[in-house]
Structure formats: C-alpha cells, structure tokens
Amino acid sequence: MADTIRVTVWNEYRHEKRNEAIGKLYPEGMHGAIAKHLAAQPGFEVRTATLDEPEHGLTEEVLNSTDVLTWWGHIAHGEVKDEIVARVKKRVLAGMGLIVLHSAHFSKIFGSLMGSTCNLKWREIAEKERLWVVSPGHPIAAGIGPYFELPHTEMYGELFDIPEPDELVFISWFEGGEVFRSGCCFHRQAGKIFYFRPGHETYPIYYDENVLRVITNAVRWAKPAGGPGPDFGNPDPLEDIKPRE
Ligand code: ZN
With left for phi above 0 and alpha for psi between -120 and 50, is residue 34 left, alpha or beta? Predict the structure, then answer.
C-alpha cells in the first residue's frame, strides 16, 4: 500500500528490566506500549528495536525500510555505538522522520542533529504539567484542545539549550513554576525531527490518550514527503551564459 507509514519504535529498554515497579508499569517496555498504539492506526506498519539487539536493532536493512523512527533513551546513551548514530543521522538527512522522546534530549543522535548541549533543568516530585498548544492548526496538535494536562510528571525547565525550533507546537507549564518548550519541530536536509517532552519511565505517560495522539500525529507529520533530496556540488549552468567581463 502506497500510503503505508513504516515506523520503528526504538527504546534502550533498561529501566523496565532493572526496576520492578517500572517493569510492572510497562510489561512490554515503553516501546511496546507506544508500538501497540501506533500499530492500531490505519496505514501504520510498526516494529520495535532495542539497544541490546545486534546493531541495536538498527541494521541498514531496518533503517532503509523505516519512514519514521521514534527514540527513547536515558541511562545508556553512551552505549549507543557511534557508527549506528551516524547511520541513523544519514537516514534522517535523507528524509527519514525522527521523533525524539523525553530523556532522549541527551541522546547522541539528537545532540548531533542539534549541535548544542540540549541541557535543561529537571526535578522529580510528581508535579502537574499543563501542555499548551502554541501552533493552532499544526498537524501535530490535531485533535488536541487548547491544552492538556498530565497529573504527575518529572519537570523539565528552561533553559532548554537547543537551536531555535523551526516550529514550536507545545509549551509546558509545571506546578513548580517552570516552563519548557515541550514540542519542537526541526528540519535537517530532507528529514523532519520532532522533540516531544513527556515520557518519564516511572509514570504511565505512554498510556495517556493525548500523549499517544501527539506521537501518532508526529509520525504522520515526520514521514518522508517525497520531495527531491539535497543536491550539492559544482554544476554547469542550465542556461547558455555568455562569458562576462
Ligand atoms: Zn525522565
């Protein structure tokens, strides 16, 4: 089917195996919860990949047949091999969409695509988060009200050291007073990147209806658009140009 979107849901998948409470919350892993929801969407073809698989589950074959990759990592960013990061980056620049979730702000792939530290403030006291839509009409906010709330989250606060996003879809407010650019769109060559903040491993964030809707919308937004790829080099002129003095 021509309209099929092939999604690979990647997770480092360590917290769920090491911590009993997190394992109970996400018995199939966070990637399992996200993949289950995406697989139920019409036109989505979904598979998962995790850090401990050979080549982190991201072989050339897998990446070449992925339209959109989602990425969750936290405690094992350093274990992701540089050659795999380079492989993912090459595919993003060529047009594969990338959805970067929560603590993957510190992933090698996001840092490499942003070129900044991607550092931020954080606090974990289960406070409330309210995510405001600041781009009405943006496809990533389709079906969301003016805002939505998560009752218990880890706080991420500004300054978030990223380049200015090409489009900003959500700004979060936290009970403790901070704000955060929590839904950020970037373009790098032919590829689209969406950073989405919610997703701390100890809360049922990836069962939240609004969070799953945003991720689903983001996959549709980030899929390759089919336009021409980048065209570099030193070409001859297309018109017959007479030598100028
Ligand atoms: Zn977290």
Answer: alpha
How many structural domains comprise the chain? 1
pLDDT tens-digit readout, 78-120: 999 999 999 999 999 999 999 999 999 999 999 999 999 999 9
- Cα 199 to ligand 1 centre (Å): 7
Q: Is the pLDDT of residue 230 over 90?
A: no
Q: What is the dihedral of CA 28, 221, 65, 29, to 10 degrees?
A: -10
Parent domain of 207: 5-115+183-222
Reading the block at residue 212, the tokens are: 């799953």
DSSP string, 142-203: TT--SEEEEEEEEEEES----PPPSEEEEEEEETTS-EEEEEEEEEETTEEEEEE----TTS
Q: Residue 21: which CATH number?
A: 3.40.50.880
Report the predicted TM-score, pTM, of the whole model to 2 decimal places.
0.96
Going from the Cα of 64 to the center of ligand 1, the distance in angstroms, rounded, reads 30
Residue 104 CA to ligand 1 centre (angstroms): 9
pLDDT for the residue numbered 231: 87
* 147 lies in some domain: no
Ligand 1 centre and the CA of 102: distance in Å? 6
Residue 109 lies in a domain: yes
